[in-house]
Write a structure and sequence with these properties.
Helices cover 82% and strands 0% of the residues. It contains 17 helices and no strands. The longest helix is centred in the N-terminal third of the chain and has 36 residues.
Length: 414
């Protein structure tokens, strides 16, 4: 097993990369306020712009996961950071809606291999009973970014402008890629699971074997549903609070730090709780979190005041962060490390398809209802209910790749 010092150093570097990736995604939700004015975009066009990254990101999830299993996660990780750095910088040079959409789409393609590759690295370097906490550390980057980005984006957008801001982010990505190339060295396999590997299909059979695993499809649906809620809120709440609740950009920046603190705390706490849950209780805990999310979404959009709205948003982030940590933890705990790249790529495709579809759908809904977001909030409540169903019907026994596909796996090895 990789030494504690080495794996914690690797985790710190992965955290740094995830932070930069999240920074770009979250900052676009604020930068789009300036971009919309500069490029004269309608709500529908804005929704298309916000969704374009996720189209490329979703397309690359499964190939990125397979490449990580086939050629090693280190190579995929470095390639992903290099490519996304290039297209992040090019975002600052966009001159029209079409050019912006194409650049963001290619940026998504570039970054698509990062999540499954980094997840596989965790499975190679951490024992099973520590993987949820390791994943929560990486996911906490989203909470930290959500905490600082409202204030940071308000400052950058009003001083250096959105074009220079994206160029700076591109340069930062190139530096991180150099760190990965120099510092990250990995074992070929996790010794904890070497015996289990004899029952796992070879590389050519991994994808087909996983696709036949019922648990994977439950995870795809659950990923789609919770990320539809997460990215629907993240992409459109800044615009909603400015245009429908009357906040200015600076006030928006400060007030959104409150939900950011909750999400950060929720992610760290979730990793600890999930590692302590008895096997089989994860789906019940996740279903309860989704139920609370749906109820609170209704209370939030019907709130009569901004303080009440932010209070409900803050509590919602706590429950969303639990589900966002739970889903990858299920993959890392239930499946062997030799297939976690591909499995994470398949499952996370659902989440990134939601990131593509939801912002665009909300844009069209807002246009159709003359600026009202009510129907959009009802759509997000519906996704919370779908996530409950996906988690309640998740069967760990049927989802055990080593048991369910043992005969097929052995045949493929021969």
């Amino acid at each position: 097993m990789t030494s504690i010092r080495t794996r914690n150093w690797i985790l710190a570097l992965l955290f740094l990369g995830w932070t930069l990736g999240n920074l770009d995604r979250y900052i676009m939700n604020y930068a789009v306020l300036s971009i919309t004015e500069d490029l004269h975009l309608s709500p529908s066009s804005t929704g298309l712009l916000l969704s374009s990254f996720f189209a490329g990101y979703a397309i690359m999830q499964m190939p990125g996961g397979w490449l990580a299993d086939r050629f090693g996660p280190r190579k995929v990780l470095i390639a992903a950071v290099v490519l996304w750095s290039i297209f992040t910088g090019l975002t600052g040079a966009a001159w029209s809606l079409v050019s912006m959409v194409m650049i963001r789409f290619l940026f998504g393609i570039g970054e698509g291999g990062f999540q499954p590759a980094s997840s596989k690295i965790i499975s190679l370097t951490y024992p099973k009973d520590e993987r949820a906490r390791a994943m929560s550390v990486m996911l906490s980057s989203g909470g930290i970014v959500a905490l600082i980005i409202p204030i940071a984006s308000a400052w950058m957008l009003t001083t250096i402008g959105w074009r220079t801001m994206f160029i700076i982010l591109g340069v930062a990505g190139a530096v991180i890629a150099a760190f990965y190339w120099y510092f990250i060295k990995l074992p070929e396999s996790n010794p904890e699971e070497e015996i289990a590997h004899t029952a796992v299909p070879n590389q050519k059979g991994i994808f087909s074997s996983l696709i036949k695993t019922p648990m994977i499809w439950n995870l795809v649906i659950a990923y789609f549903s919770i990320y539809a809620v997460n990215w629907g809120l993240a992409a459109w709440l800044p615009t909603y609070l400015v245009k429908n609740r009357g906040l200015d950009l600076i006030s928006l920046g400060w007030i959104q730090t409150i939900p950011g603190v909750t999400m950060l705390a929720g992610i760290y706490l979730s990793g600890y709780i999930i590692d302590k849950l008895p096997k089989g209780r994860e789906r019940l805990a996740g279903s309860f979190a989704c139920l609370c999310t749906g109820i609170l979404l209704y209370l939030m959009f019907t709130a009569s005041s901004v303080p009440s709205f932010i209070t409900y948003q803050t509590i919602i982030n706590l429950f969303i962060s639990f589900v966002l940590t739970l889903l990858p933890a299920i993959v890392l705990k239930q499946l062997p490390s030799s297939v976690t790249g591909t499995a994470m790529g398949i499952a996370n495709t659902g989440g990134q398809l939601a990131g593509f579809i939801t912002p665009m759908a909300i844009g069209f809904i807002v246009d159709a209802f003359n600026g009202s977001f009510d129907a959009a909030f009802w759509m997000l409540i519906g996704f919370s209910i779908v996530c409950i169903g996906a988690l309640l019907t998740l069967n760990d026994k049927k989802g055990d790749l080593l048991k369910q596909n043992r005969e097929e796996a052995s045949a493929l090895e021969v």
